[in-house]
Write a structure and sequence with these properties.
Shape of chain A: globular
Radius of gyration of chain A: 20 Å
Order of helices and strands of chain B: HHEEHHHHHHHHH
Radius of gyration of chain B: 20 Å
Largest sheet of chain A: 2 strands, antiparallel
Oligomer: heterodimer
Distance between the termini of chain B: 37 Å
Order of helices and strands of chain A: HHEEHHHHHHHHHHH
Helix content of chain B: over 70%
Number of domains of chain B: 1
Number of helices of chain B: 11
Number of helices of chain A: 13
Largest sheet of chain B: 2 strands, antiparallel
Structural class of chain B: mainly alpha
Strand order of the largest sheet of chain B: 1-2
Number of strands of chain B: 2
Distance between the termini of chain A: 26 Å
Chain lengths: 274, 272
Amino acid sequence: MSTALPSLTSIRKNLRLYAKLQLVQIRAAIEYCGDFWIGILGAMLQQGAGLVFVTALFSQIPEVAGWTVWNIAILYGLTMLPKGLTELFCDGSWTLRGKVNSGEFDRVLVRPISPALQSATAIVSIHGLGQSILGIVVLWLGMARSDIQLHWWTVPYLVLIVLTSASMIGALNFVINMTGFWEPSAQSALPTMLALVIDFAKFPLDIYNAAIRTFVTIILPYAFISYFPALLLLDRDTAWKWLGLATPLVTLVVILFTSWLWNKGLRRYQGVGH
Amino acid sequence: MDDTIRLRPIPKYVSIIQTAFQQAIAYRVTTLFNIALTFIWVFILYYLWMAAFSGRDIIGGFTWDQMRTYVVLAYAINALVGWRVGSQMMGTIRTGEILRDLVRPLNYCGSQLSMAAGFSIVEGIISLIITIAIGLVVLDLQPPDSAGAAALFTVSLLIGFVTKALIVFTVSLLTFWTLNGVGLMWAQQAIIAVLSGTLVPIALMPEWLRILAEVLPMRGIVSTPLMLYLGKASGLDALGLLALQAAWATGLWFFANWARQRAFNAVEIQGG
């Protein structure tokens, strides 16, 4: 492994390749028009179901643990929007297990493009569009009705948080799917289960017990995509809100860890003996 | 044919149940993760309601004891017919494997239902054990309201199983027209989670949704059994609920068979 930093030309080349590969996948995804709409509808209904629950809960009581329904909407939006972006732009890691199991990963390794880039662009989950749009709407409503003091930094901060959160989710998806390198069974519900942990971030951390709180702060740090930034936006009277500034840093750590693990995984991969 | 010489074959639908049962047992780890998967939302709902009940005794007619029991059991019951049953049903159509089912002298709908039963026996038993273990040790669940409530609950649970299996079966027929099985499963899962009362008890829903949920068959999957369990409906009310549930299940059986016939007539098998 060379330890030199990638040159500017190689970054440019990879970005161009990424755009091209991604475009191919998008074309493939919208080829089947009916499937495309069913996917979007299904994804929106899934998110909508959670919202029905929230509406019902808050029609009975005004607030939970000091959070109103519109405060919760901010958490929901901050979770759905980056999750949707990840599905649109970096969802290929979900094909990893299948490829490692069947040995098709051999083909990825012999191509003159970085295996990570190929894996990231292996599929486009176009239904991420539905989730992103819903996320923007819910976030907007939550912000508008939560009495948030708008500062000059609010919008740039939101953009930064959403973009870094999307990168973090993308990297974590790689990590949970890389379990396939160590335990290459054809199918496993483990990645799905770990990915679902993000749903904890749709509600304030205050309500959970210490184990869950620790898990979503340190092990799968989804709390940094919604809870801590929301504390900062709502200007809550707690020192925890300053962790809302740490999201980019946490993302960086997650990405570095992911690339370290990725290299270990690649070295471990043995093919299936063709 | 002399019955005393030949070994009597297992009744045909029972043998399908047995095969699915063995399949589910073979993939123990997957089964376990599938159950753990549904528990993430149990935790979320449990802690949210706990926070909501701090400082209140009753919300929408439910005490905290009842709500806790409702949330945990609702998920366990809804998981009886899980993701795997649906994807299996869709898979047979998508891969063309359905041909094999069609040449058998069996009712296709019936054989798919038997398959679902086989899976559910395994997943149901495991998830029941886990639910009871967690429920007793950590969550302090309530026992059924009375012995009568327990009996009614059991009957209702069985009808609810058939109801969900039939709905999943009918939706799986749509795979004849679309390749996006996952999208269908999501949509179906979300609609059932809401209208069956899994996510939130029907009594707490907004007016328009409550009326819709009370009329539709999905309430029979989770809400009806649990209302009986908690003793929220008894006597004539309980019988009425059961009758409605049974009527819907029967109606769905005929609808599913009719829809299957239409689907078979309308579409050619892929690659067949």
